[in-house]
Amino acid sequence: MEVVRVLHMNGGAGDFSYANNSFLQLKVISMTRPIAEEAISNLYCSTLATTFTIADLGCSSGPNTLTVVSQLIKTVENIRRNLYSNPIEYQVFLNDLPGNDFNAIFKALPSFHESFKKEMGGDLGPCLFTGVPGSFYGRLFPSRSVHFIHSSYSLHWLSKVPEGLEENKRNIYMAETSPASVLKAYYDQFQKDFSLFLRCRAEELVDGGCMVLTLLGRRSEDPTSKECCYIWELLAMALNDMVSQGIIEEEKLDSFNLPKYMPSPTEMSIEIGKEGSFVVNRIQVSKVDWNVYNNNDESNGLRAGGYNVAKYMRAVAEPILVSHFGEAIMDELFIRYGEIIVDRMAREKPEFVNVTISLTKMK
């Protein structure tokens, strides 16, 4: 699997598009907003920069992309206006992998500019947007050019599927049945990737620049913990059902593994300390229900909620699944997946765990 080529959210504005199925991500952005606002406020007050550069890594497409940017600019603008400072020029870099639906973002920019200027008033300086396709496991921006980096629900994706997963049969991610060698392979790949990510951002940030990163993670030090693996175990169940019925070849499933890792705060802190360029200002662990729609009052609502979970997982995972299994089975797969999720949500209240970390580059 060539991750750079196949890893992207479903584009467009259809029923299974990321744009129409990213309520979970929006809720997490809202939950972690105070951390980002605190970090960017402190940064601006310490620099009073006249040109302020913001980068959103893993921006995807849809309404969430420009929501994040507008919130960050509003925070800086409120401080600037209270200080009676001159207008700022904002440079905004929107980064994602080349397969991202950048066209949808660019088409949305004119109306965004119009409404944002109307909301903020005539004292708003230029807001200049640039799309930056490429992996954040490599350099993206000029040296010492970026003031603030934001990333939400992106950094848990790895640069590649770890090597040495041949024994992880019938699983698509780490699971309780995964051999120790599989767990080590995933952790080793996370260490390499996160260390490289930190080194690249240390080159690109100005001295004293900040990052606020939110990713799916776990509280437990057990990488097979249910709090991080459960949603993928249920998808593996649906795939295994289709193998048992001859719809998918067993060898096809055995050769599929996800390129992702959901770390603990401790694992992230260890790599940050080893890399040595950043001070950790704050680490927050938060939880969010799988069913962000909150319509599970009775059985009908619960059923709709379970299928909505399957829909937003489809918006995220379908391109990778299609690249390996083909498009023909997707409708059947996600119907089965939805049924499994409905069943589990009827008996328990599963949650995602988020790890948010605020970092400052040392001077």
TrEMBL record:
GO biological process: methylation
Keywords, comma-separated and alphabetical: Magnesium, Metal-binding, Methyltransferase, Transferase
UniProt keyword Metal-binding present: yes
SUPFAM superfamilies: S-adenosyl-L-methionine-dependent methyltransferases (SSF53335)
InterPro entries in UniProt: MeTrfase_7, MeTrfase_capping, SAM-dependent_MTases_sf
Highest taxon above the source species: Eukaryota
Record GO terms (molecular function): metal ion binding; methyltransferase activity
Keyword Magnesium: yes
Protein name in the entry: Salicylate carboxymethyltransferase-like
Organism: Cucurbita moschata (Winter crookneck squash)
Taxonomic path: Eukaryota, Viridiplantae, Streptophyta, Embryophyta, Tracheophyta
